[in-house]
Amino acid sequence: MKAPRFVISAPNGRSGKTTLTLGILRAFRRQGLRVQPCKKGPDFIDPSWHALAAGREGRSLDPFFLTPEQLRNLLATAAEGADLTLIEGAMGLFDGLDAAGSCSTAEVAKQTESPVVLVLNVRRQTRTAAAVVYGLQRFDPGLRVAGVILNEVSGSRQENLVRRAITENCDIPVLGALPYLKTLTIPDRHLGLVTAAECAAREEIMEAIADAVCQCVDLKALRRLAKTAPALPEPAPLFPPAYHGGARPKLAVFRDRPFTFYYPENLEALANAGAELDFVNSLEAPSLPSDTAGLYIGGGFPETAAKELAANTSLLREVRGAAEQGLPIYAECGGLMYLCRSLRTGDNTHYPLAGVLPADAVMGSRRQGHGYTVLRATAANSWFPGLTLRGHEFHYSQLENIDHSLDFAYNVEKGRGLDGAHEGFVYKNVHAAYTHIQALAVPSWAPAFVERARDYAARGG
Fold first, then answer.
1. Integer distance in angstroms from the first to the last C-alpha of the chain?
2. Is the N end or the C end of the chain the one with fewer CB atoms within 10 Å?
3. What pLDDT was estimated at residue 367?
4. Range with the lowest mean pLDDT among 29-33, 184-188, 240-244, 451-455?
């Protein structure tokens, strides 16, 4: 399968990778190309911007969750029908879990045999930029660093000096040079960029970035470079067949401004297992859809819409009552917060929420958990009996006033969770935790969730 592609990376974070990626995606889309965005995960926010720029849903490629074979197959699945695939890296090129750089952008590039284009912020640099490129080129012989795009160039004199230093010392093409422009700034907050859904000026920002890329980047050279990537194996189904006929239970999914953190694979896995997905706006819907047999509440930023969530009292009441009646509910991070008694925002305002879990969510000014998690299910966790699973977390909230009669869902082997030792709760048919999972890494999750929903529906709800 021909799959033209390249990776955008950098020596470090905050180099301008995402801005440049968005501009390139939108610029190629303007040319009529079908361009597929991917992100070295875990990430929900950047892919929301990728989708806006490219008009195609992004995928996260994460070697912490996926075997090399799964990662290549997911890439091939994403690239099917696309003219070009662009993979945005995370942090610096070789930054990973450990000193060996495991799970780094470089590892994704090697596993997918994708050439790398470096974004190099050259503010207050000239010849030193060439030394940085030279080192990145030669640090790992199994990696192909194939081009450079300069960022935050201060003028033609600096650009000419840097271009000459790189081409003469590194034998690598400089494919573009962008000046520093305040108009190319995307709003951010503690976990990175704001989501695309929250930014009212998103189209104006996107078009401005694309204008700059069209003017300053050699898009034809990027296309030629992408075509040098070797073919991928033909994509195989991401999930084995799990639906064998019978009733399709309806799963309600909160998907709106405060709840946007869903991997496409998770939703696909649920549908593959036989679920009918019904997306719900938690801010406006007065109730769950009729015949709801399960509820999935993903992550996001409920604190940004706490007043509106609290005002939708009829939905909060229904979720609380349904949980007491045994409705299967799976909640991640922001979903966990929604199920608590209340949410206290950064301005010290309390908002009453669903009250399914006897605990209170409190937003803090410091990061409480960020990174990969490894969790061992407790004896009380019937959702994942005996399983040790991998996930990830990023949250600034923590829970207070927890009723100690609640059963924890996991013991923490890696990560923060609730308190560094425990993570999540199981209550009746509810599973709620800060940790996000990826369905390809936890293949039992979707079939088990759908089976619970099917049983609930068979009992009459």
1. 46
2. N
3. 87
4. 184-188
Report in angstroms the alpha-carbon separations of 445 from 202, 214, 234, 422. Answer: 35, 44, 26, 20
What the chain holds in terms of domains, given with CATH numbers, is 5-226 (3.40.50.300), 250-458 (3.40.50.880)
Residue type at 198 in one-letter notation: E
Alpha-carbon separation of residue 62 from 13, 42, 372 (angstroms) = 17, 6, 11
User: How crowded is the C-beta side of 426, counted as CA atoms within 13 Å?
Assistant: 15
pLDDT one-digit tens code per residue, 63-80: 999 999 999 999 999 999
Q: Where are the alpha helices (DSSP H) in 140-248?
A: 156-170, 202-216, 219-226
C-beta neighbour count of 7 within 10 angstroms: 30
Determine whether 199 is an active site residue.
no
pTM: 0.94
The DSSP code for 182 is G
Q: Which helix (H) or strand (E) holds 452?
A: helix 445-458
**Which residue among 38, 216, 333, 340 is the active-site one?**
333
Q: Which helix (H) or strand (E) holds 399?
A: strand 397-400
Q: Are 9 and 115 in contact (CB under 8 A)?
A: no
Q: Are strands 369-377 and 357-363 parallel, antiparallel or unpaired?
A: unpaired
In sequence order, what are the beta bridge partners of 395?
A: 369
Start-end of H helices in 80-125:
105-111
For residue 227, give the nearest of 146, 290, 292, 306 by alpha carbon: 146
Residue type, 168: E
